[in-house]
Amino acid sequence: MSSFPTSISPSQSEIQSRQLSPQNLEIAIRSLHHDGLVVVENVVPHDALDRLNHKMVKDAWTLRNRKENSPYNYNPGNIQQDPPPVRKYFDPEIFFRPRPKWTFCSGNSAMPPTAENPPMSQPVHSDADFAHPTHPFAYVVNVPLITMTPENGSTEVWLGTHTDSGLHVQEGMHGERASGRIQLSALEKQRMIRPPCQPVVPKGALVLRDLRLWHAGIGNQTDDVRVMLAMSKF
């Protein structure tokens, strides 16, 4: 089995109708079922991404300068950063259907390295760091504001691990800064079956990820902040 995720590119008519074709929908559902993740390319307007990225990069530096009081996620190079919930930064074109409901929106900002904070990876973890069903119950929609690459901290994903993500393979209690960590023995076992990957996710794409999937933020080795939005759908 491939360690790299499936990507689909909706046609212009699909984008205009805001609805996937039966063929692309089947591919997406099958990928979520087998892999726990699928990439949908060319669906978010670049102008909207650029406008939001300019604001969030500026805010990211402000947050990082708080040092130990920064809202970092596992290590200082990965900041837990919410986008500003104001109209000017959210283009109407990003919303599906006439009555959207915004229940959760945050993000991960991979910061450029410094002498004090060299590139560091998060521990491999599951966001479902609590007792949860064995069937799909929540998805995360990730939207990178720029193209994500291994160099700027594309998220490491362990495809197929959403089916074995319970507390029996985790360390760290819910609510701790480093909760949901996957046990080393489980990681080594899975690596022999299907190793992880860092996919390139082009600007304008979105990533649908099962909340249970094992993953890890990877250190940014470039000079540019890499912001990735995260929206949860239960």
In short:
The protein is an alpha+beta fold and 234 residues long. Helices cover 21% and strands 21% of the residues. Pfam families: PhyH.
List keywords for this structure.
234 residues, eight-stranded mixed beta sheet, globular
Structure, explained:
- The chain is an alpha+beta fold.
- It is 21% helix and 21% strand.
- The chain has an 8-stranded mixed β-sheet with strand order 1-2-10-6-12-5-4-3. Strands 7-11 form a two-stranded antiparallel sheet. Strands 8-9 form a two-stranded antiparallel sheet.
- 33% of the residues are buried.
- InterPro entries: Fungal_Metabolite_Diox, Phytyl_CoA_dOase-like.
Distance between the termini: 28 Å
Instruction: Please give the count of helices.
Output: 4
The SSE order reads EHHEHEEEEEEEHEEE
SS strand fraction: 15-25%
Mean pLDDT: 92
Give Rg in angstroms. 17 Å
- Output the structural class: alpha+beta
Question: How helical, in percent, are the residues?
Answer: 10-25%
- Judging from the principal axes of the Cα atoms, what is the shape? globular
The description of the largest β-sheet is:
8 strands, mixed
Oligomeric state: single chain
- Strand arrangement across the biggest beta sheet: 1-2-10-6-12-5-4-3
Q: Any low-confidence stretches, pLDDT <50, length ≥5?
A: none
User: How many strand segments?
Assistant: 12
